[in-house]
Here is the input.
Amino acid sequence: MSVIPIPYPIPAIVPFPHIDPSPSPHSTPSLRSRPLTTVLYEFAGSVWANAPKIAITEVGLQPSDVEFRSVNLPEGQNFDPNGYLKVNRDATVPALVVGDKKFVDSTTVVDEIFKLGPDAPKHDSHTFHELEKIIHAVHSPKHDPNALLLLPTDDADLEAKKKGVPGGFIAGRQKALDQ
Ligand SMILES: N[C@@H](CCC(=O)N[C@@H](CS)C(=O)NCC(=O)O)C(=O)O
Here is the structure.
């Protein structure tokens, strides 16, 4: 099995590759005709911030419908009291700002994106209820993907993680917290 190297430092802004910028035949002009007031705060290496990105494509929104702002987690940009903490006091991504409304966790962010997109399943549909069950299951602390990334399984794993992406991530955010 080949191992895909993960770049470190993780680039702060990675082009969002999954969306074709040409207009979708399924999309409605509803959001396009409004001023751009929908902002998604995200980070390319964040598992939770990728949930709304997938939702955006799935519900038929266009890249121009949502402004993406990268919050560099390995550099602790999420802890800036004059910056991101004003958006989300929990200091986590994703967060979505729609006009004067704010959503600060992946579940409510995705839920809001469902309301904005023309191709989203309707709230009272069977599909929607099935999706809700999956959403609650994957958010269980038992399945926290960040624990898998950061917590070592033994001493050898601890050493490997110190030298790799997890070590760099922890060191960078600690430096920001110390400032
Ligand atoms: N329950 C939150 C969890 C979000 C979360 O933990 N995001 C991580 C990135 S995947 C984060 O922002 N971590 C910031 C940090 O630990 O410094 C959600 O669903 O949005």
